[in-house]
Specification:
With 227 residues, chain A is an all-alpha fold. In chain A, 68% of the residues lie in helices and 1% in strands. Chain A has a single domain, classed as Transmembrane di-heme cytochromes, Chain C (Fumarate Reductase Cytochrome B subunit), CATH 1.20.950.20. Chain A contains eight helices and one strand. Classes of the chains: A mainly alpha (227), B alpha+beta (497). The complex binds iron/sulfur cluster (SF4) (2 copies).
Chain lengths: 227, 497
């Protein structure tokens, strides 16, 4: 298998399959099985370690995901920000901190799930696969940050154009062809996670409450219409 | 005025015998399934006692209910709007299963499969969650009848403000006393569970006020569990959804009383409609503690008042519902006689389950191994009752004794009245004076007596016609509706995705 073909498969075919699965199955599952959209909290069963793993993990991953999105959406602004070394350092260090927070939280989550027999009862094989994927993904992300510094800049110059080429339906793998293997692993796993998303408990991120902040405190439903 | 109808309840505590039939009826019908084993939508606890979940009334720990702050606003104590966002991953006030108990069964197989040995095999308790052996430390009604016990009764949060002497009186052996408090969801007018739900999954039914959790929309944020001050929403650990008492609405809709009401051995339970003004809810929920009981009463409208009837009709409340509101036993207990009081009204959820506070035996003292009653009265003075007034006031009067005293005095007067009528060893004059002091007439006393002691099924449960089928008629042709959906869907079904 030529390297070229391999790249095409991993960075063009796979992303499209994963994105397609993501959109199709997420909507399908919401329409057919709205009931299954739940964060499936296990706080009731174990309330102490919960805080120390769930909280760092969520804050970490939210910040990291937001960072990736920003670099993807507004690469030029990120580069402009980074033109000043101090600002670049601040960005890099905080990204690393959030990455480590995610990693620590995730390891905590896995240990909690594994060591508590009650929580193991509410953990499915899918959950374990997802944990493994997220663990490798987070670990590879943190390693990339350590081994190949200034990621916020090279993400904006190389990865962002690649991702845009995918979304603009004219995939161009030349941007990332020369990337280190670790980065490539991170990219492939990211798309796999997106494709796996609708089959996992991750769907709960899509039902984060938003009208709550605006709605009236009391909710009343009428069966018929009201005169 | 925004008139709504509410299916409301009265529990007459003087009649509860603590048999737990109600709990079992509910368990068998609704919560005997995986994930719900530990839930008791109906539970009966011994008071003084710590209850279920343990010390649920201790809001310093659980942070349930509403609080009024300086700026005249009502806030959810646990996680209101501002606080839910940062706390959505880990609810800081969520009780854990240990606060309830870990459900268990017994390893019966061991009785058959145990290896031959010197000892008889035993069926050890194993957890219903993970199947591991457990050392059972708590369970449903673990403190049943343990009034006076140092680990349970003495930790009752309602003992706050009682003098040392009153506490002693509650627990010293010869004076020990307890009563039962059956509890279900109060289907509150200002429910904290509803207001706290980030998904908007919990709602009050417009027509009858029953509070339900939409299982399709619950996303397991667990806010309601922390927010309900009565701890009457429960988290199903298996389905990952919250659940609560549904007031047996499928039974109500077919004209039957809820299972716990139907099965109640002591016949302590009454159910009926109250009409209330929904526009004034917030205003009333913000009143100072000592005005809350009266304030809540002021929301409830007189169903015999022609102006109220006209307004109710205008609001779309059907004649059948108005008719049952007029016959409602709850209206009589709460509004006419004023002897049924809301529990812990200081939580400000405006509960629509009211309790008739219990009478208790007379105080006694012990000397030379004999027990003396401290009062010679036939029906003692309510202030020398063994359950201190302050304790009942903490439960049913937000700490204020006035309303509780009124309710007990009236009950006492009814007893004097009946004693004069039937036994005759009490003079009529004395009985009448008692009645007068309790702001009661002979007719009223007779009515209270009848509805308390001689009540039939029909007297206790005045179930409004729920008009679910007519609700469809108002929207569309019933035939058209029948073609559109079988069951389970309120809207019509469309072909395809
Ligand atoms: S008792 Fe609790 S669960 Fe029931 S309506 Fe009131 S706040 Fe909600
Ligand atoms: S069935 Fe009735 S009498 Fe028995 S415990 Fe329940 S409420 Fe009390």
């Amino acid at each position: 298998m030529s390297k070229h073909f391999f790249d095409q498969f991993l960075f063009v075919a796979l992303p499209y399959v994963c994105l397609f699965t993501f959109f199709l199955m997420t909507i399908y599952r919401y329409r057919m099985q709205s009931f299954s959209y739940s964060s499936l909290s296990s706080q009731l069963l174990e309330n102490k370690h919960h805080f120390w793993s769930v909280v760092p993990f969520h804050y970490g991953i939210l910040a990291i995901t937001a960072g990736h999105f920003i670099a993807f959406l507004i690469p030029r602004s990120v580069l402009a920000w980074n033109s000043h070394p101090v600002r670049l350092y601040v960005l890099e260090v905080s990204a690393l901190i959030f990455g480590l927070l995610t990693l620590v939280g995730l390891v905590g989550l896995i240990v909690r799930r594994f060591s508590n027999t009650k929580i193991r009862k509410v953990t499915t094989p899918t959950d374990w696969i997802l944990f493994a994927m997220l663990l490798v993904q987070t670990a590879s992300g943190v390693s990339v940050a350590l081994l190949y510094p200034w990621g916020s800049s090279w993400f904006a110059t190389s990865l962002s154009p690649y991702l845009w080429s995918i979304f603009m339906l004219s995939p161009d793998v030349t941007y990332i062809a020369a990337m280190p293997h670790l980065v490539k692993l991170h990219i492939v796993l990211a798309f796999l996670t997106i494709g796996f998303f609708p089959f996992t408990r991750l769907v709960h991120v899509l039902v984060i409450p938003n009208p709550y902040l605006w709605r009236k405190p009391q909710v009343v439903r009428w069966y018929g219409y009201r005169k | 005025m925004n008139i709504r109808s509410q299916v409301s309840m009265v529990f007459h505590l003087d009649k509860c015998i603590g048999c737990h039939t109600c709990s079992i009826a509910c368990k068998n019908v609704w919560t005997d399934r995986k994930g719900a084993e530990y839930m008791w939508w109906n539970n009966v606890e011994t008071k003084p006692g710590t209850g279920y979940p343990t010390k649920w009334e201790d809001q310093d720990k659980y942070k349930g209910g509403w609080e009024t702050n300086g700026n005249g606003k009502l806030n959810i104590k646990s996680t209101g709007r501002a606080k839910i966002i940062p706390n959505i991953f880990h609810n800081p006030h969520m009780p854990s299963m240990d606060d309830y108990y870990e459900p268990w069964t017994y390893d019966y197989q061991n009785l058959f499969n145990a290896k031959e040995g010197a000892d008889q095999p035993t069926a050890e308790p194993i957890s219903l969650i993970d199947g591991q052996k457990i050392d059972v430390q708590a369970g449903p009604n673990w403190d049943d009848d343990l009034g006076g016990s140092p680990i349970y009764a003495e930790n009752d949060p309602n003992l706050k403000g009682l003098t040392e002497q009153q506490r002693m009186q509650l627990s010293s052996v010869e004076r020990l006393v307890f009563f039962y408090l059956p509890r279900i969801c109060n289907h509150c007018l200002n429910p904290c569970c509803v207001a706290s739900c980030p998904s908007g999954a919990i709602y009050k039914r417009g027509e009858d006020g029953i509070v339900l959790i939409d299982q399709q929309r619950c996303r397991a944020w667990r806010s309601c569990v922390a927010a309900c001050p009565y701890k009457k929403t429960y988290f199903n650990w298996f389905t990952g959804k919250s659940e609560k008492c549904i007031l047996c609405y499928p039974r109500l809709e077919t004209g039957q009383a809820p299972a716990c009401f139907h099965s109640c051995v002591g016949r302590i339970r009454y159910l009926g409609v109250l009409l209330y003004d929904a526009d004034r809810l917030e205003e009333v929920a913000k009143l100072p503690d000592d005005q809350l009981v009266e304030g809540q009463r002021s929301l409830i409208l007189n169903p015999h008042d022609p102006a109220v009837i006209a307004a109710a009709k205008k609001a779309g409340i059907s004649d059948g519902v108005i008719d049952s509101a007029q016959k409602s036993p709850v209206y009589r207990f709460v509004m006419e006689w004023k002897i049924a009081l809301p529990p812990h009204v200081e939580y400000r959820t405006l509960p629509m389950l009211f309790y008739v506070p219990p009478m208790s035996p007379v105080q006694a003292s012990k000397s030379d191994d004999t027990i003396h009653h401290d009062t010679e009265d036939l029906f003692h003075d309510i202030d020398s009752a063994r359950v201190p007034m302050k304790f009942l006031a903490n439960l049913f009067g937000a700490g204020h004794e006035g309303q509780v005293r009124y309710a007990l005095a009236k009950q006492k007067a009814v007893r004097w009245h009946r004693r004069a009528e039937t036994v005759g060893d009490v003079s009529r004059e004395l009985a009448d004076r008692m009645l007068q002091e309790a702001n009661c007439t002979r007719e009223e006393a007779e009515a209270i007596y009848k509805l308390t002691a001689l009540c039939t099924f029909e007297d206790r449960f005045v179930i409004p016609p729920m008009h679910r089928e007519q609700a469809i008629e108002m929207m569309k042709e019933p035939h058209e509706h029948r073609e559109e959906a079988g069951f389970g869907f309120v809207g019509g079904l469309r072909r395809g995705l």
